[in-house]
Amino acid sequence: NFHKARESPFYLFSSRIINKLIYFSYGTKDVLERQCQHLNKKLDLYMDNKKIELPNIESVVILNIPFWGAGVEPWALGGGGKEFTFQQDFADKKLEVFCIYSSFHIAQMQVGLSEPHRIGQAKSVRIELQDSVPLQIDGEPWEQHPAVIHLSHHSQVSMVKLKK
Q1: Fewest CB within a 10 Å sphere: which of 39, 80, 125, 153?
Q2: Adjacency order of strands within the sheet including 95-100
Q3: Would the CA dihedral through 149, 100, 143, 18 be positive or negative?
C-alpha cells in the first residue's frame, strides 16, 4: 500500500519524516488487517520440481545469503533448523526457502523470540501464482498478477576479504 501511494500522481511528500509516518500508518494497518494471510491458497511452491505443502502463511522468503530483514539470520534462530542436514552457504549455488506467519512473526524474529518456518534448500524454485499478491525482490515491491516465477542460481561474483 505504501508503494502504491508513493507512486500515485497525488503523492506530494518527499520528506523522509513524512514518508516514515505514512509508512508507519500503512504498516500498522497491514498488521491489523493481515491482507496477505492465506498466501498458501494463492500460490504453489515447487523446490527442485517437488511440490511443497505450505502451512497458513503470509510470506515466502527465498535467499542465497545468510542474513535477512535487518540482520536476522533465519537459519541460526532458535533450533537453527536442526531437522535439516545442511548449512546455509552462499557459495553452494542453492537457494534457502522459509516462510513467515505474520508481520508480528517478523518482529519476533528480529528480537530473537521466534524462528522462521524453514522449508529447505533447492537448486531451483518455482512459484505458481493463482492470484495477485504483493511481491518484493531486492527491496523493490510491486503487485504481481498470476504468473509462474522461476528462480535459480545464475552466477557468482568473487569477493575480496581482508585478513585481520
Answers
A1: 153
A2: 59-63, 95-100, 117-122
A3: negative
| Residue found under cell 557468482 | 156
d(CA 128, CA 109): 27
The conformation of residue 44, written as its DSSP 8-state character, comes to E
- The x, y and z cell numbers of residue 140, run together, are 523493490
Which residues in the chain belong to E strands, given as ranges?
43-47, 50-52, 59-63, 95-100, 117-122, 124-129, 133-137, 140-144, 148-152
Return the pLDDT at 41: 92
* pLDDT-flagged residues of the chain (< 70): 1-15, 19, 22-24, 26-35, 80-85
Strands 95-100 and 133-137, how do they pair?
Answer: unpaired
Record the cell numbers describing residue 78, joined without a space.
532458535
Say what the pLDDT of residue 67 is: 80
